[in-house]
């Protein structure tokens, strides 16, 4: 593997040659790949509708010349110099750098040529409305296809249920071809171009995306950038001894290099998957596996890896995917002597991906999964001049919301919100309470020390609280990845069960049920009021409880995250229309969230800030746009609370709260005040 990444002297491809490079690059790439690529067995699942193919997938097709569109060439012209500079900063030392860059341009031209006409029309409208995903009426949901409906065709039949909630965004959990049983919930991918046969076909995905678009819903799927499954065709070729495909990964004959990496690289799962390397007996080499042994880390030092992966993104975009959640993106570049996290080359690659999308399919946006310290987040948005992700998962606020609920103390939450609100206006977040993953207690330890909070004791209190092991607590959940050495742990469970609804149902405690419903709604109301747009976890709209039955499944019992990955309960969903039921009350509460967000103060350019309440149990958030002011007051206590807001101004000195404001709040009350 090449270990250097310094920019090298190279000849820039001129604008006059760029079009020719784009025209011929795909043909050259396909021809060369045809001679090299291992031939996977043909299956029905490998068939797909006409769309942009990845470099490796294109090998099986007859090379064809594509005349680039004037629209594509115009977009490329405005970005080409930067794209080439970034590419060469990573690969300029390679003898094949110019040829590899030409292959990338060719893949882009081919993807644009094969982009369906209706998606090109969507591109045009989104170019005219670049802030479409920031509008106040954005309302999302995430779900597993199989757990919600069974497969993609059946999910398409459930679109009326989604429309009933006025969703504008649907994130489907991993649905690309995966091995079984070891697939990490779909995050071990066998084929980045093909839908998993158990969920349907590429045609089913394209049809679903089209139906969702007609319903006003943008489709989001995961794209796993850091690794492939150990059963991916590249990994199989590597295991068979092909040195070219061994260079698609990090493979070593002995422990010399792995041990050097291990000196600096933290373990992701120290208990369930210790270490960062796995010995492969068939290959006779150590391979880097930062997550699980069946997930092989990709070597982005190899430009063929980059071109192939970006080509797959374009292919999926041509099936109608409008949002990509790029998974584990901070890990994708490895540098010996570092922790292999958040390196500058990561941002180079994400910036290149953003440029490629703007040239080929500008309707598509990127959502980054960056589970890192809050100080690392801003960099993944890039800059106004060189943007990267359009939006990020708001992991830090999610964690702080649950911390505030358990501790009845909003100080950490307020501080974190202030830090995020201080980011430039191009920084946008998807706010949520629960998703497919665990709750990891990554709180800001520096702030905790400033507030007199012991970080370790606080973390231990939180994970014991949400597993239901604290006297007087209401939560029901489980621990995930407890580390006895560091005393670190995470939590699993649904929103309703974390808020006490499950305990109330089991114990037939009506007062507890009333209080727990108020907690649940408070958490959703707070989340939906913040900068960004809200996303529900499927089932939260009807108060779905933990799925303890996972313990009876031998293939699922080892992963406690399956506690909140249970089949959607359609019988319970039917109760959403019956007044007075738990399901009806939560359903109506979610309707209230959408109605709240139609207020003008939820415009993309609204000024958002917290406000001092003189009460550590109550959070105040202020929204202001064009002179209109809306204040949200959120009590995280089971007792009545009094708040006092002093007059104050925004950053420009414009008065926001003109007169002192006092209010008395009921337990877990959310109140909205128009000034």
From TrEMBL:
Residues 16-70 have a biased composition (Low complexity). It comes from the Bacteria. The keyword Glycosyltransferase applies. It is an enzyme of class 2 (transferase). Keywords: Glycosyltransferase, Transferase. Pfam families: Alpha-amylase. GO terms for biological process: carbohydrate metabolic process. Its EC number is 2.4.1.4. Residues 1-70 are annotated as: Disordered. GO terms for molecular function: amylosucrase activity. Residues 1-15 have a biased composition (Polar residues). Residues 142-594 form the Glycosyl hydrolase family 13 catalytic domain. InterPro entries: Amylosucrase (IPR044077), GH (IPR017853), GH13_cat_dom (IPR006047), O16G_dom_2 (IPR045857). This is Putative amylosucrase. The lineage of its organism: Bacteria, Bacillati, Actinomycetota, Actinomycetes, Bifidobacteriales.
């Amino acid at each position: 593997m090449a270990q250097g990444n310094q920019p090298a002297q190279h000849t820039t491809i001129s604008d006059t040659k760029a079009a020719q490079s784009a025209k011929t690059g795909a043909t050259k790439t396909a021809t060369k790949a045809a001679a090299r690529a291992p031939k996977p067995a043909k299956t029905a699942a490998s068939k797909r509708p006409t769309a942009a193919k990845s470099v490796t997938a294109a090998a099986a097709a007859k090379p064809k010349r594509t005349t680039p569109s004037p629209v594509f060439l115009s977009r490329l012209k405005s970005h080409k110099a930067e794209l080439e500079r970034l590419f060469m900063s990573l690969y300029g030392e390679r003898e094949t750098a110019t040829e590899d860059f030409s292959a990338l341009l060719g893949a882009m031209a081919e993807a644009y040529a094969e982009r369906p006409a209706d998606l090109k029309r969507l591109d045009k409208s989104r170019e005219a409305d670049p802030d479409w995903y920031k509008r106040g009426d954005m309302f999302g949901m995430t779900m597993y296809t199989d757990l919600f409906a069974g497969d993609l065709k059946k999910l398409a039949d459930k679109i009326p249920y989604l429309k009933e909630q006025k969703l504008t965004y649907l994130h489907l959990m991993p649905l690309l071809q995966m091995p079984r049983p070891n697939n990490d919930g779909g995050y071990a991918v066998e084929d980045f171009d093909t839908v998993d046969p158990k969920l349907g076909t590429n045609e089913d995905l394209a049809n679903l995306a089209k139906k969702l678009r007609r319903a006003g819903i943008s489709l989001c799927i995961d794209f796993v950038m850091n690794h492939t499954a150990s059963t991916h065709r590249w990994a199989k070729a590597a295991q068979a001894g092909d040195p070219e495909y061994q260079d698609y990964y990090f493979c070593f004959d002995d422990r010399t290099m792995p041990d050097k990496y291990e000196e600096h690289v933290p373990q992701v799962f120290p208990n369930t998957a210790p270490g960062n390397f796995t010995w492969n007996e068939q290959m006779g080499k150590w391979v880097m596996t930062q997550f699980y042994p069946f997930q092989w880390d990709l070597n982005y030092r190899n430009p063929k890896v980059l071109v192939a992966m970006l080509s797959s993104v374009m292919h999926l975009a041509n099936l109608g995917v409008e949002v990509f959640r790029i998974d584990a993106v901070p890990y994708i570049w490895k540098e010996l002597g570092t922790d292999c996290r958040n390196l500058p080359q990561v941002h180079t690659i994400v910036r290149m991906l953003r440029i490629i999308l703007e040239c080929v399919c500008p309707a598509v946006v990127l959502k980054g999964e960056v589970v890192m310290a809050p100080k690392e987040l801003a960099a993944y948005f890039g800059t106004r001049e060189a943007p990267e992700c359009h939006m990020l998962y708001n992991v830090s606020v999610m964690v702080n919301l649950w911390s505030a609920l358990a501790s009845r103390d909003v100080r950490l939450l307020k501080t974190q919100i202030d830090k995020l609100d201080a980011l430039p206006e191009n920084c946008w977040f998807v706010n949520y309470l629960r998703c497919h993953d665990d709750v990891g207690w990554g709180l800001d330890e520096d702030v905790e020390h400033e507030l007199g909070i012991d970080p370790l004791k606080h973390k231990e209190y939180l994970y014991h609280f949400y597993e239901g092991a604290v006297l007087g607590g209401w939560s029901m959940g489980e621990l995930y990845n407890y580390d006895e050495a560091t005393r670190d742990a995470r939590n699993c469970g649904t929103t309703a069960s974390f808020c006490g609804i499950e305990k109330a149902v089991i114990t037939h405690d009506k007062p507890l049920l009333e209080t727990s419903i108020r907690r649940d709604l408070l958490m959703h109301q707070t989340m939906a009021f913040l900068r960004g747009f809200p996303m529900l976890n499927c089932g939260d709209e009807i108060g779905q409880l933990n799925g303890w039955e996972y313990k009876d499944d031998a293939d699922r019992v080892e992963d406690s995250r399956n506690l909140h990955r249970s089949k959607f309960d359609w019988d319970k969903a039917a109760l959403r229309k019956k007044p007075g039921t738990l399901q009806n009350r939560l359903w109506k509460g979610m309707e209230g969230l959408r109605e709240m967000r139609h207020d003008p103060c939820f415009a993309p350019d609204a000024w958002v800030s917290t406000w001092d309440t003189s009460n550590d149990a109550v959070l105040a958030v202020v929204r202001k746009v064009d002179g209109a002011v809306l204040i949200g007051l959120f009590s995280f206590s089971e007792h009545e609370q009094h708040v006092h807001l002093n007059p104050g101004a925004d950053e420009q000195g414009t008065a926001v709260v003109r007169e002192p404001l006092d209010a008395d709040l009921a337990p877990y009350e959310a109140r909205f005040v128009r000034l």
